[in-house]
Amino acid sequence: MSDKSRKGDEQVFAVDLGGTYLRIALVDGSGKIHQQLKQRTPKGDSPDFVVDALDSAAENWSKDDGRRIVAASIMVPGTVDNQNAVVVQAPNLPSLTNFPLKAVLEERLGWPVLLENDANAAAVGEMWLGTARGCRDVVSVTLGTGVGGGVILNGELWRGAHGSAGEIGHTTVDPFSGLKCKCGNVGCLELFASATAIVRMTRENLPRFPQSILNRDELTAERVYGAGRDGDELALMVFKRFGTYLGIGLANLINIIDPEIIVIAGGAVNGWDLFARDMQREVSERAVRVTAQQVRIAAAECGDNAGLLGAARLAFTLL
Ligand SMILES: [Zn+2]
C-alpha cells in the first residue's frame, strides 16, 4: 500500500453501507475521525435512496471551508467486481446488485470513489490502526450475523481474480451436517461460528438441557454468552462447538496462507473467553506445527470502526 505524502488537512469520505445501518465518517490521513453519522440504511427497490443519502451527507460536510475532502470509499456487504466499480452481489441490499455504484457516486460527489467488500476493509483497518499494526501477512475473520474474511499478503489486500478472496465463512467444515447455507453449500463455517449459529445451536439443544436458564423465546447470541459466563451448561456446550469449528476453519486458513496474525472481529468476539481454548486446541492439532506454534490469533481492536478506517485508508491510496 503506497504512503504518498499528503497535506494534513486532507480528509476522505468513508462509508459503511451495512444491511441495517449506514455509517459515514470523515477521516484524515492519521485515522482521526472528524465527523460521523449513523442512520438506518434507506431501503427500496432502487439504489437512488442510498445515493441520495450519501450525496446529502457529502454536501453538508463539504460546506466547511477549512476542510478538503479528496476521495470517497464505500464498503459494501457483498462482492465487488475486480475493477472495484460494480457491486456484483449484495444479499442484504439487493437493489445494489449489478449497480455501477462507483460511476454514479463519482458523478454525484465529484471525488474518486473506491468500492470495497466490508470484511476486506476491516482487515485493512486492523492492519493500519488495530491489533495487526506492523504486520504484513494478515487474515481477519469477522464473526457476526455471518462470517466474513479479509486477506492481506505482503501488506496488500488480496482480492482474488474475481473479487471474492477470503470467503472463509463459506469454506466447508461439516459436509454431513445437513445444514444448508444461504450460499447454496452445505456445512459452511458460518453455520457453526456466527452469532446466528450460536442462537440456532442453542435452540436445537434446549430439550437436552432442561435445567438451562435459557429459553426458546428470548434467544440472542448475547444472552447465550451471558448464560455461559454464569456457568450454564448448554451455553458452554454451544461455545465449545463454536470454538471447535472456528479452530478447524482457522487451521485450514493457516495451512494455506501461513499468516503472521489472524484477527478475530465482530460481535461474537464478546464470547472469546468461552470459545478461545477450543479454537486454539483445534489450530494446534490441525495446522502445520511450525506455523501453529507461531501464528498469533488475537481479538480485533478497532471495534465497529475497523471497516470505516480501512475504507478510509484505501481511499487515500487512490490519490
Ligand atoms: Zn456458505
Bound molecules: zinc ion
Low-confidence stretches: 1-5
Binned, the helix content reads 25-40%
Shape: globular
The average pLDDT score comes to 92
Describe the strand arrangement of the main beta sheet, using strand numbers.
3-2-1-4-7
Q: Please write the string of helix (H) and strand (E) elements.
A: EEEHEEEHEHEEEHHHEHHEH
Can you put this structure into words, describing what you see?
With about 325 residues, this protein is α/β, with parallel strands linked by helices. It has nine helices and twelve strands. A hairpin with a 3-residue loop joins strand 1 and strand 2. It starts with 9 loop residues before the first strand and ends with a helix. The N terminus is likely disordered. Bound molecules: zinc ion. The site of zinc ion has 6 residues, from loops.
